[in-house]
Amino acid sequence: MPNYKLMYFNMRGRAEIIRYIFAYLDIKYEDHRIEEADWPEIKSMQNHQLLVQILQPCSLDSPVFHHKPIILFIQTYMEQHTLPFGKIPVLEVDGLLLHQSLAIARYLTKNTDLAGKTAMEQCQADALVDTLDDFMSCFPWAEKKQEVKNEMFNKLLTREAPHLLQSLGTYLGDKEWFIGNSVTWADFYWDICSTTLLVLKPDLLDSHPSLQTLRKKVQAIPAIAAWIQQRPQTRL
Ligand SMILES: N[C@@H](CCC(=O)N[C@@H](CS)C(=O)NCC(=O)O)C(=O)O
């Protein structure tokens, strides 16, 4: 089993889908959480510190800098150990860094029923995740002006969300899970996204009992229930 280290803020956010998948598949990993206050330094210092570490024993006129294999080694090391696009979450797999939460989720669910049992189901699960993600990505999470942020959040939660919920309810119909006849990571993603939406608007699902039931079913899966019980309690 590879060595996994997940790096993200101390929140559910975009890392939670990865944590659900690890929990469900019973895969051990390090859940490395960084404080938001430390992030600017981590982001800007990452390259610099690593370079210093690698180059410290050398002086700049050292012959090592004319030695192609050494330069190649440094390049490879840097590619493997720096944040590829300066964004988190990232997942370190045996020392190699993967980025983009949903790509990581697809990687971890590959060849498991969580991805969907057929190519068609896998496409449906991907599409549903992307649909949810499209909506979650509309929120200006990092907006500094509180008034602008409130207005946009309000508009999305009161005017846009009802359309999405209506479509999700129709898509679910009277099925047990969104896709096929067993749980997929799309059901996980629904639970994760709706948990955050309910923090922002507690009555959001009042007129969508089937979508609430689906949340309860995901949360009742033993491995997920255990994770929800033990995870750090954060607002988002
Ligand atoms: N689509 C990417 C989004 C990554 C992303 O925007 N991460 C945010 C936190 S949710 C981040 O790294 N923010 C810090 C920054 O941009 O400096 C994913 O799903 O992984």
Folded structure, characterized:
This protein has 236 residues and is of the alpha+beta class. It has two domains: 4-110, Glutaredoxin; 114-220, Glutathione S-transferase Yfyf (Class Pi), Chain A, domain 2. 57% of the residues lie in helices and 8% in strands. It has helices at 16-25, 39-55, 68-81, 101-109, 119-138, 146-172, 185-200, 209-220, 222-230, and strands spanning 4-9, 30-34, 90-93, 96-99. Strands 2-1-3-4 form a four-stranded mixed beta sheet, with helices on one face. Helix 1 (16-25) runs parallel beside helix 4 and helix 5 packs parallel to helix 7 (185-200). The radius of gyration is 21 Å and the shape is globular. 21% of the residues are buried. The chain binds glutathione. Glutathione is lined by residues 13-14, 43, 87-89, 100-102.
What are the key terms here?
alpha+beta, glutathione transferase activity, Glutathione S-transferase Yfyf (Class Pi), Chain A, domain 2, Glutathione_S-Trfase, four-stranded mixed beta sheet, binds glutathione, single chain, 236 residues, 2 domains, 9 helices
CATH architecture label of the largest domain: 3-Layer(aba) Sandwich
List bound small molecules. Answer: glutathione
Question: Which series of helices and strands comes N to C?
Answer: EHEHHEEHHHHHH
The major pleated sheet works out as: 4 strands, mixed
Number of helices, counting only DSSP H or I runs of 4 residues or more: 9
Number of strands: 4
Determine and state the CATH class of the largest domain: Alpha Beta
Number of structural units classed as domains:
2
Strand content: 5-15%
Q: Order of strands across the biggest sheet?
A: 2-1-3-4
| Shape, principal axes of CA atoms | globular
Q: Taking all residues together, what is the mean pLDDT?
A: 92
Q: Briefly note the structural class of the backbone.
A: alpha+beta
Radius of gyration: 21 Å
Reported by name, the CATH topology of the largest domain is: Glutaredoxin
Helix content: 55-70%
Q: Spans of 5+ residues with little confidence (pLDDT < 50)? A: none
CATH superfamily of the largest domain: Glutaredoxin
Measure the end-to-end span. 30 Å
Please, what is the oligomeric state?
single chain
